[in-house]
Amino acid sequence: MNATGQTGRELVDELLALESRLLDPAVRRSRETVDLLLAEEFTEFGSSGRIFTKEQILIELSSEPVVSFSISDFKLRFAHHESALVTYLSVRTDETGARHIALRSSFWIHRDARWQMLFHQGTRT
User: Fold this and answer.
1) What's this model's pTM, rounded to 2 decimal places?
2) Inter-CA distances, 60 with 3, 10, 48, 78, 121, Å
3) Residue ranges of domains in the chain, CATH in brackets
């Protein structure tokens, strides 16, 4: 068990569910929900090569075209006390049907009785 009282499997399942929520088009368009899932000091190194702050991500996602994502090869790479690193492969299917594959990593922290994403990076493959 980790400091949050979860077993390794429970932690993997919870963080996979949170990553999946952040990829859900309905969640992505909800500023309030995304705001709760991202830490105030959140930073993203996007697959586009751009660097985003939390506020920039909130603005970007509010007008993002509806796309679908799938996750595979999800792994918990490191967990210590109240932090965790996850990695996975995502496939984004855009409005034209084109598929975009990326390797992704997210660093999560547990604070205020919930997990929040502190850092995310996407690398196109």
Assistant:
1) 0.90
2) 34, 31, 13, 29, 16
3) 8-124 (3.10.450.50)
